């Protein structure tokens, strides 16, 4: 390092020569006495303050504003719709003594990480916290003591039977009230179906694959046969098909006792086989939903179908753009399934527990769920709401006036009455998606990909 | 302590003995209580104030550097999940032995190394060339100097997002450009080397200008007469670059290599955003570009296993320490050679530039 230093005097070596008479902190020529002592004390004090500053903080516990309003804070994520639909404003208008402060995180992953940290620390929590379905089981298992019991809330029987059971502990404590759900259908491009010589009318398309997902893949083969334009694939990704198949059953990766069963569960095995088959046969566009390439794929029509939960319609219509309005349509899926959904819970140590519980009971009541469906398309988890005209007669102008209220409503009723959740459901699902990509993108054999996936799941659940 | 302080003199004290002893002597010669207190204050001033001045750094370092380091080590000895940080299960060093047996760790280590090499080497070479060009007298040099620094000022997220779009398979600009040369669409994300190359491109783009400015600063400290002397001796521009410039900035080169090594070891943001979503966290479906930073993130913030994540953090720390020690040893071995007292131009030929 040092060979060149003295010859050329690089900037880095200039330092030692600055104090030619020895170390700088010895023998100060003039020592203004008071100043350094004071400054030193001040500096030391300041650093103590800085160090201490990172402790403390946390719950404010302040539940009233100056003019006597009760403040309810909410932690939400993504587009849950309460703020966007104006429902929160309406509640504040109808209840002038309430002030709602909703904090919306765009990304659920970030939101949940913060929520976990706050739960572990016991501070920084809002009065109301949103719970994504993939996290429900973990919270039920590990943090049920932090949530208020909502099971005494009047009028809970309007929810779909499986919705509330997902956030109920073994001893009957209800941690949250259901917001939306994600019943599934198949979104398809009429123009591309026509090109391939397939029927384009909704009723006929549904008949092509009615009752069996394997038929859906067969239609894909016909599509490939009929469409000589190589660039268009039948479906966007094999993982979409995999999700739709496993979520039509009451159990996926875990059994009720929390044991991993994906290895023996025929539902998972069958879904894997069919999805791997579709991937190997080149029926997919080798894309990942919500990842780069998927959005332009929607706009440019690089694939003809996508398995779509109700909440995906908003995304598709936004990304495919006005140019494709009327080209897309929605058909019933071979089998009803549920992908996604959320809950609202109240924290047990909230000073406004009662008011917060009233608020979420109102927000998740059938009428309000119908409003959110009408404005944003999030599908109600309330059985009663399915029969409200705004929902039952709901149509999507973008998707060729498809009767989405009817289609998704029927799918919602087909969902099994019990839905067993597991602690690592979300991560395991992602691992399966990656496994299918090994077939699609890396050209691995289904057996090899299953082996890798199995190993990965064992490691992450260990 | 030979000089007395003026403040002591104005108090009417006899100056301390000139033999170099401190104020102690003055206090010993029958001074009053007030005077001795003043002397104590004086000594405290001289002795303690420097410590007080540097105290903020050490206090902050202790709170934000040392404590987290030790606490991370403590966590790495446990099995603990993020949602239940208050429930820890003692595992001793089991996390470390498991990590050594884990092929994902070795895969991530290899990827970190390969991405590190294919990003650091071209980056530093290009920075060297850029700095050399900027070192010429040229019109609008300030503009160019600022311009090379702009990528560094861009946020990783923005840069990585733009590059992700450029390297997109179906509609990316790079594949579009390649198609004119009859090259089929490259699946940048899904294939190992294209993915690593694309990530390196982001790193190179971001850091080249930064390093170039460091080199430029060092180059400007090289005396002009050396170049003049070399020119008189008949050295070409290239010879001047190799035999005057490079040795002149060798210390800076080592510095940038150390910086880049640390940066490469901690490579995280670029691959995470390049993969987007779950694939970014696992570094591709086949972990083809998962770096150590990403593996840490996956264990900590996807699997929520804080104990295992802390273990990886410590492994990374140990790797950096190891690299640092090796570099010191190499420098020491080098310095031990007789190449030490080289003279200006002629001898530099025999002195290999201290870049390694």
TrEMBL record, chain B:
Keywords of this entry: Cell membrane, Membrane, Transmembrane, Transmembrane helix, Transport
Region Disordered: start-end pairs: 1-34
Main location, first listed in the record: membrane
Mode of membrane association: Multi-pass membrane protein
Residue ranges of the TM segments: 48-75, 113-134, 146-167, 197-218, 246-268, 311-330
Compositionally biased intervals (Gly residues): 22-31
PROSITE patterns, per the entry: ABC_TM1 (PS50928)
Gene3D superfamilies: MetI-like (1.10.3720.10)
Compositionally biased intervals (Polar residues): 1-10
InterPro entries in the record: ABC_transporter_permease, MetI-like, MetI-like_sf
Gene Ontology terms describing biological process: transmembrane transport
Domain ABC transmembrane type-1: 109-327
Family (UniProt): Belongs to the binding-protein-dependent transport system permease family.
Record's protein name: ABC transporter permease
Top-level taxonomy: Bacteria, Bacillati, Actinomycetota, Actinomycetes, Kitasatosporales
């Amino acid at each position: 390092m040092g060979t060149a230093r003295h010859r050329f005097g690089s900037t880095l070596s200039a330092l030692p020569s600055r104090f030619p008479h020895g170390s700088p902190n010895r023998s100060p020529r003039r020592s203004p006495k008071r100043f350094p002592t004071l400054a030193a004390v001040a500096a030391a004090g300041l650093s103590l303050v800085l160090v201490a500053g990172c402790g403390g903080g946390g719950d404010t516990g302040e539940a009233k504003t100056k003019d006597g309003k009760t403040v309810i804070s909410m932690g939400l994520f993504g587009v849950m719709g309460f703020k966007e639909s104006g429902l929160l404003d309406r509640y504040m208008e109808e209840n002038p003594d309430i002030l709602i402060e909703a904090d919306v995180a765009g990304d659920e992953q970030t939101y949940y990480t913060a929520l976990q940290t706050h739960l572990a620390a016991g501070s920084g929590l809002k009065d109301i916290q949103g719970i994504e379905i993939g996290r429900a089981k973990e919270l039920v298992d590990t943090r049920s003591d932090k949530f208020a019991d909502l099971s005494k809330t009047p009028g809970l029987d309007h929810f779909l039977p499986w919705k509330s059971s997902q956030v109920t502990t073994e001893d009957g404590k209800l941690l949250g009230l259901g917001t939306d759900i994600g019943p599934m259908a198949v979104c398809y491009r009429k123009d591309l179906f026509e090109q391939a010589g397939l029927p384009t009318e909704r009723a006929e398309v549904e008949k092509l694959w009615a009752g069996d997902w394997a038929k859906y893949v067969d239609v894909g083969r016909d599509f490939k046969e009929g469409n000589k334009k190589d660039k268009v694939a039948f479906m966007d990704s094999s993982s979409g098909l995999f999700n739709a198949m496993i979520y039509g059953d009451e159990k996926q990766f875990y059994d009720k006792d929390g044991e991993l069963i994906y290895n023996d569960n025929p539902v998972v095995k069958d879904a894997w086989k069919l999805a791997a088959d579709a991937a190997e046969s080149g029926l997919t566009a080798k894309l990942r939903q919500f990842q780069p390439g998927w959005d332009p794929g929607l706009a440019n029509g690089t694939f003809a179908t996508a398995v779509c939960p109700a909440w995906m319609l908003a995304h598709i219509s936004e990304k495919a753009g006005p140019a494709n309005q009327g080209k897309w349509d929605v058909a019933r899926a071979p089998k009803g399934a549920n992908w996604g959904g959320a809950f609202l819970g109240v924290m047990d140590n909230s000073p406004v527990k009662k008011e917060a519980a009233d608020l979420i009971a109102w927000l998740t009541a059938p009428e309000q769920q119908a409003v959110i469906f009408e404005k944003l398309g999030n599908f109600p988890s309330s059985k009663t709401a399915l029969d409200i005209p705004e929902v039952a007669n709901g149509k999507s102008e973008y998707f060729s006036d498809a009767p989405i209220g009817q289609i998704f409503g029927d799918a919602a009723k087909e969902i099994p009455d019990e839905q067993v959740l597991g602690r690592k459901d979300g991560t395991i699902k992602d691992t399966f998606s990656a496994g299918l990509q090994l077939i699609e993108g890396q050209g691995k054999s289904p057996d090899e990909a299953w082996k890798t996936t199995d190993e990965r799941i064992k490691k992450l659940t260990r | 302590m030979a000089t007395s302080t003026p403040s002591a003199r104005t108090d009417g004290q006899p100056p301390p003995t000139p033999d170099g002893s401190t104020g102690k002597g003055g206090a010993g010669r029958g001074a009053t209580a007030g005077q001795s207190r003043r002397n104590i204050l004086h000594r405290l001033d001289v002795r303690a104030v420097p410590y007080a001045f540097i105290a903020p750094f050490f206090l902050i370092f202790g709170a934000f550097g040392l404590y987290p380091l030790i606490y991370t080590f403590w966590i790495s000895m446990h099995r603990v999940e993020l949602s239940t940080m208050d429930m820890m299960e003692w595992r001793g060093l089991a996390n470390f032995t498991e990590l050594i047996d884990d092929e994902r760790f070795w895969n991530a280590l290899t990827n970190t190394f390969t991405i590190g090499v294919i990003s650091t080497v071209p980056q530093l070479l290009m920075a060297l060339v850029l700095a050399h060009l900027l070192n010429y007298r040229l019109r609008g040099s300030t503009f160019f100097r600022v311009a090379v620094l702009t990528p560094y000022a861009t946020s990783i997220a923005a840069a990585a997002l733009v590059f992700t779009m450029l390297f997109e398979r179906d509609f990316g600009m790079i594949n579009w450009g390649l198609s004119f040369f009859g090259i089929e669409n490259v699946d940048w994300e899904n294939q190992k080397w294209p993915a690593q190359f694309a990530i390196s491109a982001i790193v190179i783009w971001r850091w080249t200008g930064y390093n170039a400015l460091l080199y430029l600063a060092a180059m400007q400290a090289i005396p002009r007469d050396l170049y003049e002397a070399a020119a008189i001796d008949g050295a070409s521009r290239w010879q001047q670059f190799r035999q005057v410039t490079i040795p002149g900035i060798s210390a800076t080169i080592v510095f940038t290599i150390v910086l880049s090594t640390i940066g490469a070891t901690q490579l995280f943001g670029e691959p995470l955003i390049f993969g987007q979503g779950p694939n970014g966290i696992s570094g591709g479906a086949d972990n083809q570009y998962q770096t150590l930073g990403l593996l840490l993130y996956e264990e900590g913030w996807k699997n929520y296993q804080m104990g295992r994540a802390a273990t990886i953090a410590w492994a990374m720390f140990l790797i950096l320490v190891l690299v640092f020690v090796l570099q010191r040893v190499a420098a020491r071995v080098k310095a031990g050679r007789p190449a030490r007292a080289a003279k200006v131009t002629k001898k530099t030929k025999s002195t290999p530039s201290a870049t390694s």
